[in-house]
Specification:
Elements (H helix, E strand, L loop, with lengths): L1 H24 L7 E5 L6 H15 L7 E5 L6 H8 L7 E6 L1 H8 L11 E9 L1 E6 L7 H10 L5 E4 L5 H13 L4 E4 L3 H9 L5 E4 L1 H9 L3 E7 L25 E7 L5 H16 L1 H10 L2 E2 L4 H21 L7
Parallel strand pairs: 1-2, 1-3, 6-7, 6-8
Antiparallel strand pairs: 3-10, 4-10, 4-11, 5-8, 5-9
Length: 326
Amino acid sequence: MHKHIMSKAGLALAAFLALTPSAQADWKPTRPIELVVHTGPGAGSDVMGRALIAAIDDAKLSPVRIQIANKVGGGGATAASYLAGKKGDPHVIGLFTSVWITNPLVQQEANVSLRDLTPVGLMVVEPAMFVVRADSPFKTLPEFIEAAKAAPGKLKQSGGSPLARDALVRTVLQAKTGARWAFISFPSGGERISALLGGHVDAMVIEPAEAGELIRSGKIRAVAQIADARLPDFKDIPTLKEAGFDVANPPQSRGVVGPPDMAPDVLKYYEELVSKAAASPGWQKFIRDGLFEGKVLSPKETSAFLAKTENEVREILKEAGVKLVR
């Protein structure tokens, strides 16, 4: 009798253990999901977030609604802090960019880094172009560099934040070549382009989608691509390395991250959602139209990518003489 009872108990336990992993793998959201972005409506992360939601909706990948939560401020610090405060919440995710790596290194108040959150998946790496006006005397990047060496500080580059990718490109090129040129910050992309076209600056770093239209209209000339390989749409333009400058390509990467302590079954759900969304027709069109590199990485791969990027950015900032707080 005792043996029989123990046998039934053992069977029950075995059945429970067998079902548990399956139950975990089948987690689904039960209320709307917040997708946190650090920019306002119409800006880069907001645009990408809405494109991601549209792709998910069109492919019917989510059983619940996903809505944008704009948490603007501190160059990503407000959004990162908001996510950190949602520890363990399975219905909140965020869209990170490279500025979420840079800002905690230099801003004391940006006290949440991507290491404090849960990487879900990298989705995009954005190439860039180093461009001059179409009537510029510089036909190549080496010509620009040589002119900057001959007249230190005379040439000017328009850009955004001194910590953004366009400024980091200047930093690595100056460190490699010894050339010196000025960096002029403007709050919006439109103002940066206007400064170049109006002759107020001599160069800028711009995203390929914007560059393509300006190249075709005969307003600017691209002299180098900030990418590991030439983009199909710009086969005649050399990469930095091909132009003779073997330097790090400061990446502009974007992807999905979750709050701290995301449960394994929840992480698995979002990993699969990101993977399916990245393969959807709507997202593939977004990648093509934006001339992005769709680079989908798993949570583990994303974590390694972010750690490598942080180390690279840290070294670039040190070269630039920027004071690091972490």
